[in-house]
Design a protein that fits this description.
The protein has about 350 residues and is α/β, with parallel strands linked by helices. Helix content is about 20%, strand content about 25%. Strands 3, 4, 5, 6, 7, 14 and 15 form a seven-stranded mixed beta sheet that branches. It has a six-stranded parallel beta sheet with strand order 10-9-8-11-12-13, sandwiched between helices. The chain has a two-stranded antiparallel sheet with strand order 1-2. This is Enoyl reductase (ER) domain-containing protein.
């Protein structure tokens, strides 16, 4: 029957788990299999999608490890890795999806994926914005910035806000949200190019290159002579230590990620925790999945901001599935400028 012929399905497959150290491209491989462009007979409530864009995210580093008791499952050796992406429905046996629908959510790092539990996906309604935005600004990273800043930090106009890894997928948004609210915002990043972006494109009040600061405590005192009300934590380690000493009374820290620790065998100790007592600091970790019920509310807020030019978003696009392993690993050396995504197909 037409539409049932097999087509090539290129995949990014895990070769080795990497428990410590920087993963290498050779820990993954590109394989080719084939797939029929139909949901298999008798498979109810499933969809077959063609993947368009894949999101590279720091949390995926943990999935390259052999994990026990983590909030995310390890990738399986010999199977395609998966993550957030944007895809188009090719075939469906699910009443909520039809051929041609666009979705974002967890999909395979391959050309086509059979998704047997599509209830966790989001259907894309707004197509008058770049579709790639659903890998970041209008997807998981956007919701992370929104939930972490507004729900966890309870920000108020005029407060002093610090964002680490500020030019990344989440950080660039937190800074812009804080500016829209009328806060004073400083960000740090790892290159002159990124620092310039923070100041000139994203509207941060100030920014610094942490690699050029021999003393992080001094850098923060220079940027925040009055101290920090809100720290959006993406880095951990020495940065967190320096921040704790510079927080104001009743300061809030949203612990979103700690990318400086993900490749370490021995995690860095934090020495300044004592400050949370006299300063009554509230530090809270969070997972974006706990806040997805707010997604419709987020869209109502963010879409007008995008259309009015109040929010800008910088993406770093890698072309083709073959480039996906290098794009993912590049997150951990700061190679990307802005939101890292992989273009699998333009249609």
């Amino acid at each position: 029957m037409a539409g049932e012929e097999s087509v090539r399905n290129k995949q990014v497959v895990l070769k080795n788990h990497v428990d410590a150290g920087l993963p290498k491209e050779s820990d993954m491989e590109i394989k080719e299999s084939s797939i029929r462009l139909k949901v298999p007979e008798g498979t109810k409530d499933a969809i077959l999608v063609k993947n368009l864009y894949l999101s590279c995210d720091p949390y995926m580093r943990n999935r390259l490890k052999k994990l026990q008791g983590s909030y995310v499952a390890s990738f399986q050796i010999g199977s395609p890795i998966n993550g957030y992406g944007v895809a188009k429905v090719v075939d469906s046996t699910h009443s909520g999806y039809k051929k041609g629908d666009l979705i974002w959510g967890i999909t395979g790092w391959e050309e086509y994926t059979l998704i047997t539990a599509p209830d966790t996906l989001f259907k894309i309604q707004h197509t008058d914005v770049p579709l790639t935005y659903y890998t970041g600004l209008l997807g998981m990273a956007g919701m992370t910035a929104y939930a972490g800043f507004y729900e966890i930090c309870s920000p108020k106009k005029g407060e002093y806000v610090y964002v680490s890894a500020a030019s990344g997928a989440v950080g660039q948004l937190v800074g812009q949200f804080a500016k829209l609210l009328g806060c004073y915002v400083v960000g740090s990043a790892g290159s002159k190019e990124k620092v310039d972006l923070l100041k000139n494109k994203f509207g941060f009040d100030a920014a610094f290159n942490y690699k050029e600061e021999p003393d992080l405590d001094a850098a923060l005192k220079r940027c925040f002579p009055e101290g920090i009300d809100i720290y959006f934590e993406n880095v951990g380690g020495k940065m967190l230590d320096a921040v704790l000493a510079n927080m104001r009374v009743h300061g809030r820290i949203a612990a979103c990620g700690m990318i400086s620790q993900y490749n370490k065998e021995q995690l860095d100790a934090v020495h300044n925790l004592i400050y949370i007592i006299p300063k009554r600091i509230r530090m809270q970790g969070f997972l974006v999945t706990d806040f997805y019920h707010l997604y419709p509310k987020y869209l109502e807020t963010i879409i007008p901001h995008i259309k009015e030019g109040k929010i800008t978003y910088v993406e770093d696009k890698a072309e083709g599935l073959e480039s996906a392993p290098a794009a993912l690993i590049g997150l951990f050396t700061g190679r990307n400028v802005g939101k890292q995504l992989v273009v699998v197909s333009h249609d």
